[in-house]
Each structure stands twice: as structure tokens, then as C-alpha cells.
Amino acid sequence: MxxxxxxxxxxxxxxxxxxxxxxxxxxxxxSDLHIIKTESNLNLLKSAVVYGNNASGKxxxxxxxxxxxxxxxxxxxxxxxxxxxxxxxLEKFALNTKTEKATSFFEISFIQKETKYRYGFxxxxxxxxxxxxxxxxxxxxxxxxxxxxxxxxxxxAFKEGLGKEEDVKENVLFLSVLATLxxxxxxxxxxxxxxxxxxxxxxxxxxxxxxIDKLKSDKQFFNWVLHFIKYLEIANLSTTEEDxxxxxxxxxxxxxxxxxxxxxxxxxxKIQSKQPKRDQLITFHRKYDEDNVLVDTVAFNFDKQESExxxxxxxxxxxxxxxxxxxxxxxxxxxxxxxxxxxTLRLVDFFHKFNKSKAQLICAVxxxxxxxxETFRRDQIWFVEKNQFGASELFSLADFKTDKVRNKSAFxxxxxxxxxxxxxxxxxxxxxxxxxxxxxxAEQV
Length: 445
What we know:
Elements: E1 2-8, E2 17-20, E3 35-37, E4 43-45, E5 47-52, H1 58-81, H2 97-101, E6 104-112, E7 115-123, E8 128-136, E9 140-147, E10 150-153, H3 174-180, H4 184-194, E11 196-200, H5 207-217, H6 219-228, E12 234-242, H7 249-255, H8 259-273, E13 278-288, E14 294-301, H9 302-305, H10 308-326, E15 329-333, H11 341-353, E16 360-364, E17 381-386, E18 392-396, H12 411-416, H13 430-437, H14 439-444
Parallel strand pairs: 5-16, 5-17, 11-15, 15-16
Antiparallel strand pairs: 1-2, 1-6, 3-4, 6-7, 7-8, 8-9, 9-10, 12-13, 13-14, 17-18
């Protein structure tokens, strides 16, 4: 379970920025469905939603979480593959002279197997500048601390790190080295990062493949999806192999007289014949006669004949199911794109109501129909906006004083009126009219 995530000097975030999943003790709303109670008496939120203007930094913050995950998982492997000359795909805050030479900071706190960990690192383009790992039992204790290539290991609490301090290259995380060696605590921590599912709501790449594979291999998931989408009037689903080669090479060769082109066509056909076939999803819709009596079902090519919203929903369900079943963290950018407002609302409600494995959802959205006290607590709602210096700033609705935000406040109305900031706007002025039509014609409009 995620407790907190912090970044500094990454993409549009210049200063230290923290997203907290710790429930505010003073807020009592939705305490039955929206709160995860832990063994350490720390109450965590099941979800957090992030609002903000276009280009405010919502996606950048979620990308920072993905960057940290990939760095932890791939640090050791990538250094080997690239002959020890690996440079991190790091993008620092570019609009300040100080941040150009400064390091980037990443830190995360989470609970894995009933133990609380705090892990983080500072990196530059080509090296690890600092790295640290703490755990909490009765109190927080460091397991290891790193300053460049100097690594201090807690001899009593982290014996798995002893003797490995000199085996770490400057562009490799100490944690990644230990996990690669199969060390218990380090592997446990890396496993937590693996349990973070990332989904881009704009396109279906990545999670589409996972959903189709799971539909083929998991009958329980198949039945769950079929029941989930019954309102779409889809009677059944199936998967079939799609031949990627839709060119009739035999006909082309028969018509061709040039020997070189014939040989080329033969070579292309051989190459394509070795390519793996792609799985294609088929949906079946009921067909009726003129008296509205069911007579048959009609097969639809899912990707070509179903709506964009239907495609997004179905492909998203694989990650949704996996997250809820296995207690993972699901991070989605643009959750509401291509979906009806009511459908997005129902998905979030489902996540809160049928969440028995302590799963968590973090999503960035624009749809203000979700911005209400029936859907989220005040401490679950976050905003991102850029300041006058081009830096993104993240803040929670819980940060506002009670004279501005109460549990009974109309969150969506206040947001649209600009009371919380982080809203999109541009000035509708006469200058735009003149530049569009020319001054003389603009005066006649």
C-alpha cells in the first residue's frame, strides 16, 4: 500500500512535491468504504484523483512515479546491457538555472507484508548521488544509506547488504543489485514496485495485450468481463488469431514478370510467415427479425466496429481486475477520456465498494462530475497548477481552510468558479477577434 510519494526537480516539478495517501483524522466522511485500515493503525486512502489545467503537470507527476518504478526494476540490467555507460532518461526542470545542475529526488513510503518502508534516491544523468532505505517496526531505523559510492549498512538490521557495498557501480542502485542477488528484503521491496500498474487512458497499448491474454487464459475473468459489459448489449466474447499478412503474394507473383521483384515478394512472404499472429477480440451482438424475435448473433471485429469508449472500457478491465484481486496500486492518466461521465463515476464507485485486497487507485482526470462529496473525500482530491515561474505545484483540497471548504461544499461549483485554482482559461478579448478577422471586419461583427 502506498503511503507517500515525493519528487523534486523532475519534468515540470521544480520544488519538493508530495502526494500523501494518509487519511486525514479530522475527516469522517466515507470512513466505511474509502479507508484502508492497517496493522500499524495508519489509515490510508483507497484512491486519489488529480485535477488541473492542460499542461499543468498532472501527467508529469504520474510519469515521475513510473520513472521511479522503471529505475528500480531496470537499474542493474540496463547497466549491464549498455556496457556500464548507461545514462538515465532523466528530464530535470528546465526553466531554472539552479535545477540544471542539481540532482533529481525521488522518495516513496509504502507498506509491504505489514512492514513500513521508506526508500529513495537522488540521481544525476549518469550516476546515483544518494540512496537510502528505512523500515519501521516500533520506530524507523535505517537499513542502508548511500552517499555517492560510500554505502553504510546497518549491521544488525540489514545483514543482506553486508559485503556487497563495493560491488555497486555509480549508475546502479544498491537495492537493485541486492534484489538481483535474491536477497529477501530487497526482493520484497522490488516486488512491491512490480505491483504498481500504470495505464495511459489516451491509448490502449500495453494493457490491451494483458486484457486479451487474460480473457484467453482466465475463465473467471472472462465471465466477470462478460457480466460487467452486459449493459453494452454484448452477448458474448471470443478471441481469434488475426493474420497480419493481408497481401495476396501468390497473385502478385503470378502477375509480375520482373525476376528481381518476384524474388523480393518471395522474401517478404517468408519473413511475414514467421511473424507471430496477433490475437483479435470478437464481440457478438444479438440479431432480431422484423417482429423483434431473437434469431441469431452477429460477430463484430472489436477494434474496427465497436465504439472508442467500449474499447477503452474493456481493455481497461484487465488492469482493474488484477489490481482489485491482488491488492496492487493502479495509476491511470486520463481515466475519463473516451468514457461517459456516468461510466467513469461507476468505475470509481466500484473500486471503493468492492475493494477487499487493500488496492489503491491514483488517477488524473478532467471530468468535474467526479468532483463531489458523494464520490471522494476532501483528502482524496488533489489539484495541480503552474506558478508564474513555470513550475507545477500539487496541493490537496484538504489543505484549504474550513471557511472555504466544508464537507457539504459544492466541490465542482467552487472549482469552476476558480476558488481552488488549477482551472483552464483563456481571455476572450477583442484582440483575438481582430487577429482572426482583421481589424476592419472585426468591427463589423
